[in-house]
């Protein structure tokens, strides 16, 4: 099912960009012969908290190509470099960092589905798995802990 969903996402993605994009791993026939272009690190499903830090890793490599692939990020299909947000930063190794994660009832800019794209000029692009990012409201944890303490107190006193 996950694979199906992934394929579906890729399909839509390829259609909308109409460029040379393959799945997580791919072999390209080029003037260097066959080149295996794969992700060595893909973003993982992540749960973070409001006010916290979100970190998503992405790294790709093509054998027999010494150039480092360039990494870009998409969230819910939108290229993040086109969205100005100073909380967001892409490190030189490709990792995406979001500081001070925002989460309110009506404003959840950081929650969603992230994908990274690795591109090697003259070869093509590959797109990673979809990483689902969930933001938990810290208040819920506090309430749970408080509840737990209250319950313990009740248990002890009764
Ligand atoms: C990139 O660097 C950051 C900070 O040093 C590190 O946490 C992260 O794991 C690195 N990413 C990869 C893909 O190695
Ligand atoms: C505390 O007690 C309430 C009501 O008895 C219960 O609904 C809740 O799940 C309990 N919480 C914990 C953390 O045990």
From TrEMBL:
Assigned keywords, A-Z: Disulfide bond, Immunoglobulin domain, Repeat, Signal
InterPro entries xrefs: Ig-like_dom, Ig-like_dom_sf, Ig-like_fold, Ig_sub
Pfam (any one): Ig_3
Gene3D superfamilies: Immunoglobulins
A GO BP entry: cell-cell adhesion
Presence of the UniProt keyword tRNA processing in the record: no
Signal peptide start-end: 1-18
Domain Ig-like stretches: 37-134
Family indicated by similarity: Belongs to the immunoglobulin superfamily. DCC family.
Protein name: Ig-like domain-containing protein
Organism field: Oryzias sinensis (Chinese medaka)
């Amino acid at each position: 099912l996950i694979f199906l969903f992934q394929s579906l996402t890729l399909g839509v993605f390829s259609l909308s960009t109409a460029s040379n994009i393959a799945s997580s791993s791919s072999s390209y026939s080029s003037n260097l012969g066959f080149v295996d272009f794969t992700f060595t690190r893909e973003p993982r499903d992540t749960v973070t908290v409001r006010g916290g830090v979100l970190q998503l890793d992405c790294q790709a490599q093509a054998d027999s190509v010494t150039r480092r692939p360039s990494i870009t990020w998409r969230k819910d299909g939108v290229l993040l470099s086109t969205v100005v947000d100073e909380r967001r930063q892409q490190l030189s190794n490709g990792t995406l960092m979001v500081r001070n994660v925002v989460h309110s009832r009506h404003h959840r800019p950081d929650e969603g589905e992230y994908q990274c794209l690795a591109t090697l000029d003259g070869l093509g692009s590959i797109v990673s798995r979809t990483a689902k990012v969930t933001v938990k409201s810290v208040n819920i944890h506090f309430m749970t802990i408080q509840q737990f303490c209250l319950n313990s107190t009740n248990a002890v006193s009764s």
